Amino acid sequence: DTAVSQTPKYLVTQMGNDKSIKCEQNLGHDTMYWYKQDSKKFLKIMFSYNNKELIINETVPNRFSPKSPDKAHLNLHINSLELGDSAVYFCASSPPQGYNEQFFGPGTRLTVL
Amino acid sequence: AQSVTQLGSHVSVSEGALVLLRCNYSSSVPPYLFWYVQYPNQGLQLLLKYTTGATLVKGINGFEAEFKKSETSFHLTKPSAHMSDAAEYFCAVSDTGGFKTIFGAGTRLFVKA
Predict the structure, then answer these.
(1) Closest to A90 in 3D by CA, of B90, B83, B3
(2) Cα–Cα distance between A59 and B35 in angstroms, integer?
(3) What pairs with residue A109 in β-bridges?
(4) Is the pLDDT at B78 greater than 70, yes or no?
(5) In 3D, which of B29, B34, B35, B37 has the Cα closest to residue B2?
(6) Is the pLDDT of residue B96 over 80?
(7) What is the 3-state secondary structure (H, E, C) of B33-91?
(8) What span, in angstroms and rounded, lies between the C-alpha atoms of B44 and B64?
(9) What does DSSP assign to residue A102?
(10) Which of B95, B99, B102 best probes binding to A when mutated, by most A CB atoms within 10 angstroms?
(11) A12-30, pLDDT tens digit by residue?
């Protein structure tokens, strides 16, 4: 069983389109995250959710809208895609508290043309 | 604010040689520190972590790291490199709540035969 899964794995789209990435975890964790990894492998937190509530929004443009329908899911919708949105997006989950490790999904490679 | 600096974006070692990946952190509170490894086209997975207690922590695949508060360092070592160790390595620091983890820029480890 995959602990943290993301769909799709690859996403190629045109500028201006709207797309969604889905994330599901079966670990029973309360906390879920979205990260963006750029072409230089730099990993930056975008959002943190705890029990379906938004905790952290790291100055992400409002074209990005996360949604957590339940504790096991955290989806990411992106409006009006731009070239600079091209990256690998990772979902992760963890129990609460900072001493706990995060479990990462396999990533979604988004390419905006 | 917390931050992480990884010295050296690329490190190259020969198979069987010592691996040393450097990480320095900044934190106003006692830190929770992590090393994650990322293999090509995969998500991150935990190598080891320091929370409290023993400052020398052992992880998977023969890696270990030592927390040195006086030097604000958490360097990762492995006595003998293996070809399978070739990957991207990330040092990270977490806040107490666990909702915001800051990752270093990553160090790409190359292992030569």
Answers:
(1) B90
(2) 25
(3) A10, A88
(4) yes
(5) B29
(6) no
(7) EEEEEECCCCCEEEEEEECCCCCEEECHHHCEEEEECCCCEEEEEECCCCHHHCEEEEE
(8) 17
(9) P
(10) B99
(11) 999 999 999 999 999 999 9
- The token duo for B9 is 């974006």
Are A33 and A84 in contact by the 8 Å Cβ rule? The answer is no
Q: Which two tokens stand for residue B77?
A: 């070592």
Determine the Cα–Cα distance for residues B92 and A11; give it in Å rounded to an integer: 28
Region of B96 on the Ramachandran plot (φ > 0 left; ψ -120 to 50 alpha; else beta): alpha
**Which of A101, A103, A104 to substitute to test the interface with B, most B CBs within 10 Å?**
A101
Q: How far apart are CA B66 and CA B112, in angstroms?
A: 26
Token pair 């969604």 is found at: A20
Are A89 and A68 in contact, with CB atoms under 8 Å apart? no
Backbone angles phi, psi at B85, to 5 degrees: -80, -10
A38 is written with which tokens?
């750029």
pLDDT digits (tens, 9 = 90+) for A31-72: 999 999 999 999 999 999 998 899 888 878 999 999 999 999
Q: Does B25 touch chain A (CB under 8 A)?
A: no
